[in-house]
Design brief:
Elements: E1 4-5, E2 11-12, H1 19-23, E3 59-63, H2 67-78, H3 83-95, E4 116-123, E5 128-136, H4 141-151, E6 156-158, H5 159-168, H6 179-191, H7 217-227, E7 231-236, E8 242-248, E9 269-272, E10 276-282, H8 284-289, H9 292-301, H10 306-321, E11 338-344, E12 349-355, E13 359-363, E14 369-372, E15 374-377
Parallel strand pairs: 5-6, 12-15
Antiparallel strand pairs: 1-2, 3-7, 3-13, 4-5, 4-8, 7-8, 9-10, 10-11, 11-12, 13-14
Helix pairs in contact: 2-3, 3-4, 9-10
The protein binds glycine.
């Protein structure tokens, strides 16, 4: 199967499931020179400054579980592969890994024990996105999202339609629940009354009768334990072309059909080829309600460095979420984590989390590694 740039200037013809072979030999986008490298510094919160971009250099950033993803994305971009294909191939390593319980094969299932996946891809040079949500039995939802981007006039396909779309494009159906995640899900079922998503009267933030709910910090702490993760990966080429991808099994033991931020363009992923690319992991509901990834890119467009941009959006989330009492502790601080990642057009990168202690993965051409995220709030009691 050959890859080429079509008459609209976009990449076409990627094999359905064979990431490496399918992405080989595709040229990058057509943008010109990037701006000068700038160092960031001066981030708020935890005080981890932005890492300087190195103009003309490749950079890929990811969630902490994405060290292999950033390494692969950089390798493929260096080989001339389009950045959208490179990031999809990078996250595909984790989607196929049964030991990563946040994505693809071995991802944690929904309330009924069925693995339901969400993913999105955005291609900077064409400003085109593709996404799928609540898709079952397909190991590589990011590759399906790429097919939506490449081969449809749409952005988002969900549920059974997404599964059938994948099958039509040659993806094979398989059971994604591993024995280990099945056992964990069975364990959760036996105890779920305390940690599911069906709010009791006393946990509701808003009730038509105007009565005030109780705070339930303990419940949210347990929810954070089970919410696990996601993988996001954004990358920039030496020519300054950007792309991003986010893929997840979503909130563990979610209500079937619950869609998080990962497949929602602007929430779990946003890429603007003039500015940068950003993504989110963690509590998807807050990334949705803050238009998290889009907000990060807009903060960068307004002059903030990547770390400052992530912190500014987290601060807005923390300010707004105080109105939902079950989501804050007794001091009014969020009791969940949300992690934002950003890479700028010049290769500068940064990441920040709501609560201290998270890391991110990066390869800025000097090797794939983990670094500490900046943070808005210190971890309580540490
Ligand atoms: N951030 C992943 C999710 O909430 O589904």
């Amino acid at each position: 199967m050959s890859n080429h740039i079509d008459r609209r200037g976009f990449l076409v013809s990627v094999g359905a499931a064979a990431g490496a072979a399918a992405t080989a030999g595709l040229a990058g986008g057509a943008l010109g020179a990037v701006g000068q490298s700038q160092s960031g510094g001066g981030a708020g919160g935890g005080g981890v400054g932005a890492r300087a971009g190195r103009a003309g250099r490749v950079c890929a950033i990811s969630s902490a579980n994405g060290v292999p993803a950033v390494a692969r994305a950089v390798e493929r971009i260096r080989a001339g592969v389009d950045p959208a294909l490179a990031v999809v191939e990078g996250v595909g390593i984790l989607e196929a890994d049964p030991n990563d319980k946040t994505v693809g094969l071995g991802g944690r299932p929904n309330e009924f024990g069925i693995v339901e996946l969400d993913a999105s891809v955005m291609h900077g040079p064409t400003h085109k996105a593709g996404s799928v949500a609540s898709v079952q039995n397909i190991m590589h939802p990011a590759q399906v999202a790429l097919k939506v981007l490449q081969y449809t006039d749409h952005v988002m396909i969900v549920g059974d339609g997404a599964r059938k779309f994948a099958i039509a494009h040659g993806f094979k159906e398989e059971n994604l629940l591993t024995e280990e995640t099945r056992q964990e899900w069975m364990q959760w079922r036996r105890h779920r009354s305390e940690i599911d998503d069906w709010l009791t009267d006393s946990q509701m933030d808003w009730k038509p009768d105007g009565t005030r709910p109780l705070t339930n910090t303990e419940k949210r702490a347990e929810l954070e334990e089970r919410s696990a993760g996601t993988i996001h990966c954004s990358a920039v080429t030496p020519a300054g072309d950007l792309a991003g991808c986010t893929t997840t099994s979503g909130l563990a033991y979610k209500i079937p059909g619950r869609v998080g931020d990962s497949p929602i363009i602007g929430a779990g992923l946003f890429t603007d080829n003039e500015v940068g690319s950003a993504g989110a992991t963690g509590r998807g509901e807050e990334a949705i309600q803050s238009c998290g990834a889009h907000s990060v890119v807009m903060e960068m467009a307004n002059g903030k460095d990547p770390t400052e941009a992530c912190l500014a959006v987290l601060k807005k989330v923390a300010d707004r979420v105080r109105r939902q009492r079950r989501l804050v502790d007794e001091r009014g601080r969020p009791n969940f984590n949300l992690v934002l990642y950003a890479v700028r057009k010049d290769g500068a990168y940064g990441s920040a989390c709501m609560i201290e202690g998270r890391e991110f993965a990066v390869d800025d051409g000097t090797g794939a590694r983990r670094e500490k995220c900046a943070f808005l709030f210190e971890r309580r009691g540490d």
